[in-house]
Amino acid sequence: MVKRTGPTNYQLKELLTQLESKALQSNFWARIMNDLNKPTRQRRTVNVYKIEKFAQEGETIVVPGKVLSVGDLTKKVEVAAFTFSEEARKKIEEAKGKTLTIQELLKKNPEGKNVRILG
Question: Is the per-residue pLDDT at 1 higher than 80?
Answer without folding.
Answer: no
